[in-house]
Amino acid sequence: MTQKTLEQTRLFTRMVAEKQGWVLNPDTEFYESLVEGLTANYNRYGYYLCPCRDSDGSREADKDAICPCVWSRKDIPEFGHCYCALYLSHEFAESGAPCRAIADRRYEA
Length: 109
Known about the structure:
The protein is mostly helical. It has one domain (about 5-100): Alpha-Beta Complex (Ferredoxin Thioredoxin Reductase), CATH 3.90.460.10. The protein is about 45% helix and about 5% strand. The protein has a two-stranded antiparallel sheet with strand order 1-2. Helix 1 packs across helix 2.
């Protein structure tokens, strides 16, 4: 398995944000911690598992939590950012409001 670098992960997150019409978290220190987590997860599992979630043991079991996770498409319009706050809506980013904890939809019944 090819290892990813931090720069490759930064490029990945920029491309996702651009394609989805989102903005990356502007807090550089926080953003970098998420990039480090994504990179570590890629190098551990072979895919960009959300850095805020634990692996369920396989790519198939984790497929909904691979960045960008399936819940981001609901969380960003509803809360202005995804669960881990890597991606923000343009409106939320422009508002300057702080990201807040939101419920993890992964284990909703």
